[in-house]
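Session log. Operator J.P. requested a structure for one protein chain; no other inputs attached. Running the standard single-chain path with token output.
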Amino acid sequence: MKVLVIEDDPIVAASLHHLLGQYRYSVDIASSAEVGLEMVAAYAYDLLVLDRGLPGMDGVSLCQRLRAERQDMPILLLTGQGGEGHYQAEALNAGADDYVAKPFDAEELVARVQALLRRSHGIAHPILTWGGLALNPSCRQVSYGDTPLSLTPKEYSILELLLRHPTMVFSAQSILDRAWDSTDAPGEEVVRYHIKELRHKLSVAAAPKMLIETVHRVGYRLNPLYASPQSTQGEPIPAEPPPSVLPQETDLTTRNHQLQTALEILQTSQANLRQHLADLQAIQAALTTERDYYRDLFQWAPESYLVSDLQGTIQAANQAAGALLGTAPQALIHQSLAQFVAGSDRPAFQASLRQQRWPYPWRIHLQTAQGNGVPALISATPIVDVQHQWIGLRWLIRKE
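Structure written below.
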């Protein structure tokens, strides 16, 4: 089942994605009503979860617009605290099928989602069945007869899709659209592989071989011949696996199952990495903006600032430092700060650099590029790296 969550709070959105994902729903996230409308137009969703307090077009207005556009999927509206009766009436009058107040209880929200999906598909009983096949969405358990089935998340999603729409034929592409979220883009061969694995696991549980039927050149559906439990009674149910099943075949089946699970994990990781890359690019852009801002502050600060390495070689200088020392800031780069210290103070200055110890404040006589003396107070603070090792010095110079 494919669910779209339209929520601008990233923490709430991530919580809903994680919660609904635990119940094998494919979840897409939209951060605004405008993005949500685009995604509804592009994908088929079984249910929408809308936040009432969206920026711009709010959740109530979005719900009204969706209904005006004849979008009939169930809508669950998330409302704020307080005024419960008012919010409930507002949500229902806008066309929502149900509402939940924030902060929501996880079990209640999942129960309401499951109830809405049952009602939308005309299913009264919470357990989905087809002949001897049973799927319980509440506990995510699947069985055939008395035999439990161990399914991967995608196998479960495909089987649930077929059980919720038992009369429909789904093409491989439509299964991709409904059982995968929009960040994943596997090929149709992935669907065929999952169908093959589902059939194998069902046959091991003594289900009819073609319980999942292939409609030639159309897609897949549940075979109507096996809709009732009685329709499977004529099928032989072996008490033990046929002798033709070799241990090597069992090992291969187990290995295939492990590889498929690993593939699904990799696909999820790929989507997470894409999102992580986008986040890092946004952080990099913000850091670049911040760096440029502080660079401007440094360059045009009224005080004289220099940056040097631990040996006193100047790496950066602002406009005020250049004016104090009688030269352009660019001309100071790669020059030794010691050459701008008057000869009488230079030996003590160089000794302090070697020892990395100096008084504070430090009264010293500087000389400009033109040889003019400048009495000054200077102070040096270390620049450290992430390991707290000194990598440079930051100098503040005040003319006395």
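Operator note: The longest helix spans residues 247-299.
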